[in-house]
Task: structure prediction
Amino acid sequence: MSTEVLKEPVRVDVKVGPQPSPIWIGEGVSERAGTLLDAQGVGARRVVVSNPVIWRFHGAHLTAALGRTDPILIPDGERYKTLPSVTRIYEALIRTGADRGSAIVAVGGGVIGDTAGFAAATFLRGIALAHVPTTLLAQVDSAIGGKVGVNHALGKNLIGAFYQPAAVLIDPLLLRTLPRREFRSGLYEVVKYGMIASRDLFDRVARDMKAIFDRDPAVLLPAIIESCRIKADVVSRDEREGGLRRILNFGHTVGHALEAVTRYRRFRHGEAIAYGMLAAADLAATRGALAERERQALTRLITQLGPLPPVVDLGVGEVLEVIRRDKKVVDGRLHFVIAIQIGATMTIDDVTEEELQAVLERLGLKR
Ligand SMILES: NC(=O)c1ccc[n+]([C@@H]2O[C@H](COP(=O)([O-])OP(=O)(O)OC[C@H]3O[C@@H](n4cnc5c(N)ncnc54)[C@H](O)[C@@H]3O)[C@@H](O)[C@H]2O)c1
Ligand SMILES: [Zn+2]
Result:
């Protein structure tokens, strides 16, 4: 990890509740974690939660940055995003004498952030939480916005809370060790932000793809900052998904259904969302709401980003079944986010089963 002189981090605020929830983004901010957290009052007793994979790569330099850490390491994987893991965190906190002045520092991807975040939201009715996201997906999405929670044997993310972190520290240098497929998974969410709010971001991902994959901070950092700004802005205006926050679900109706029918084993989250965005763009283009050339630009970008796991063996019927049960069905109506151009969306609530069926068939699923 480099220790060269660091540029000033950029600050982006999520403005909900009495105090803004600040996000610092910059090359090397993780090396200044101690100072930044002290300044934010996430001081006194900090308890790090991470996993053994991440800690092997980044434990030494984070320990140097945070001072003595005795991290709580949860085993790696989505299947540990559970209440038993939360209980383990509670036990470790109690054993070390944690109190209302203690803070949890979650160092990891979405799994660690969601699990440790839920522990922070509930231990002693809430202790301070800081996120140090280590996957691109966590840096642009899961560490921002305050959703924390765990899975239940009967369904994903069924248990959770809204709990804004006291600070989020985003360091693109941490992504150097991230496997390419995980990196790509996060990039699809960046493409999503382009689709919903920024043609410029979309174009830059397409143009600078190689440098982005090389994790060149000169291009990666601005893409992360813009993604964070978009999410922070949406969440600031609609913390609890009353309406606007729904645009963040672009590509997620079909995406979540694909993840569910494959029991969260086949797709990385972003890969499923890539299919979901293709589906939403197809639906919009077929209705004439999105220009064909815009749709093709999305298809081209997603194709260029790399291969996606197959869908040909999945049945249209089973996917439709999951969509019907989807959380986004309000009063019996499915709220579906479509793109009307690259950089702008709208929500429609009159999507028919026939339309969805045709879209899924064109995506390659079997009838
Ligand atoms: N709270 C929210 O708003 C929100 C939003 C989107 C997704 N999520 C949740 O996020 C989770 C997915 O998160 P994810 O994609 O980050 O997956 P993840 O947390 O499982 O991390 C992916 C893999 O990368 C490894 N890893 C992490 N950082 C690394 C690094 N710097 N170097 C090398 N390896 C590293 C992890 O150990 C893991 O094996 C899901 O549970 C999803 O529900 C939450
Ligand atoms: Zn997502």
